[in-house]
């Protein structure tokens, strides 16, 4: 697709409330998917006619609304009240899910234990699977010694495919990702049967808060934008 006609929502120059996606009479830049991709848009809308997809989307929207308090007051002032872990538990309950897969990184084992405890307290059966399951050496996938974290030692590779297969075998209703690495999370999504959400992603530098680097890209993290990292 020509870049001029491809979707470029991230650089749309119109204020949010004046955009075609937010306002039926709104405006859109070149390539605006709301205004240009009519055929694809209608195809997507038909997917919501499927009962299971429609209910999933409906409950997700209800959950979104319930994250704010004072919605009955005028004028409405956005006041969020629920952290993501609470949202996940409430959404799973709305969908009548019973068995949850907790797919986590070894580096967040402590956090996984707390999440597991919280979910079980709310009545869910939790199937937890660590990233290093299988104890497969990194050499098996062609990783060289100088490409390891610690050269000269055995290093078990992250095994998101096994994590997905164990979750599939357990027939989890819903999976929760906690701290998987870039790429490993992608493989889990690819191989998992059940729908999956993300509680937290891996970001070793920011304490797993990747937006910190985005928020400070104008000063402390300017090297992220320039690509001139001194740590390589």
Topology, element by element:
Layout: H1 33-36, H2 38-47, H3 51-66, H4 84-94, E1 99-104, H5 109-121, E2 125-130, H6 160-170, E3 174-178, H7 184-191, E4 196-200, H8 211-215, H9 222-226
Parallel strand pairs: 1-2, 1-3, 3-4
Helix pairs in contact: 3-4, 6-7
Q: Give the biggest beta sheet.
A: 4 strands, parallel
Which series of helices and strands comes N to C?
Answer: HHHHEHEHEHEHH
- Catalogue the unreliable spans: none
Task: State the end-to-end CA separation.
Answer: 35 Å
How much strand? Answer: 5-15%
Shape: globular
Structural class: alpha/beta
Radius of gyration: 21 Å
CATH architecture identity of the largest domain: 3-Layer(aba) Sandwich
Mean pLDDT: 93
Can you give the helix content as a percent range? Answer: 25-40%
Beta strand count: 4
Query: Strand order within the widest sheet?
Result: 2-1-3-4
Q: What is the CATH third-level topology name of the largest domain?
A: Rossmann fold
Q: Class of the largest domain in CATH?
A: Alpha Beta
């Amino acid at each position: 697709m020509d870049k001029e006609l491809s979707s470029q929502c991230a650089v749309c120059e119109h204020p949010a409330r004046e955009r075609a996606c937010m306002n039926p009479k709104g405006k859109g830049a070149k390539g605006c998917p709301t205004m240009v991709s009519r055929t694809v848009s209608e195809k997507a809308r038909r997917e919501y006619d499927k009962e299971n997809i429609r209910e999933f989307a409906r409950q997700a929207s209800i959950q979104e609304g319930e994250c704010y308090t004072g919605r009955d007051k005028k004028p409405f002032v956005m006041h969020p009240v629920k952290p993501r872990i609470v949202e996940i538990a409430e959404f799973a309950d709305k969908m009548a899910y019973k068995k949850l897969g907790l797919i986590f990184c070894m580096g967040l084992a402590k956090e996984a234990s707390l999440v597991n405890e919280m979910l079980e307290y709310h009545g869910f059966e939790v199937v937890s699977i660590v990233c290093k399951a299988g104890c497969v050496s990194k050499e098996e996938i062609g990783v060289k010694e100088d490409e390891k974290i610690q050269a000269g030692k055995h290093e078990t590779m992250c095994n998101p495919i096994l994590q997905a297969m164990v979750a599939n075998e357990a027939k989890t209703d819903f999976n929760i990702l906690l701290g998987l690495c870039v790429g490993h999370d992608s493989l889990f999504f690819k191989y998992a049967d059940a729908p999956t959400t993300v509680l937290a992603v891996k970001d070793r530098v920011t304490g797993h808060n990747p937006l910190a680097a985005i928020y400070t890209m104008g000063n402390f993290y300017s090297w992220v934008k320039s690509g001139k990292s001194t740590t390589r």
